[in-house]
Amino acid sequence: MKKLSYFLILFGLVTIISCGDDEEDSMTLGVSGTLNFDGQSYEISSGLLVERSNPAGAELQFTLADGTFSSGTSSSDSQILLSVRAISEGTNELEDGAYAVNTQTGSMYAFVTVSTSGAQNQQSIQAGSINISGSGSTYSLTFNDVGFLGGAELSGSVSGTFQN
What we know:
eleven-stranded mixed sheet, globular
């Protein structure tokens, strides 16, 4: 009888451990995609998501990088670091749709900051939009011809599960 009890306990442990591994393998963790900025492509591999307090509605801040970064110290080994503040007025959650860049036109808009190797390009953004969809910590962002004074453009898309 003892052998049967030990066998059942061992079988139960193996089953629990096996199920845990299956769940972890099926989860998609991390952010990936390609951004093109000023004629150069960047493979995005890091993403951070922060929910910000905004009395006008829902606001999320997405930070994307092609390397690693630390939100606490603002340090990075990245060649590109992109920050997007998306605001959806009058709602409790960010709505899916097109967000106008660097203008408060309509009820859905976004502010973008791009840093490449130490140069910040926030002030020179002229036009464009970002399609944002998702919920929780899983989002997709598509940059549609975000134009800068001087001719630089930002385009491409990223998606995945952002670190909170």
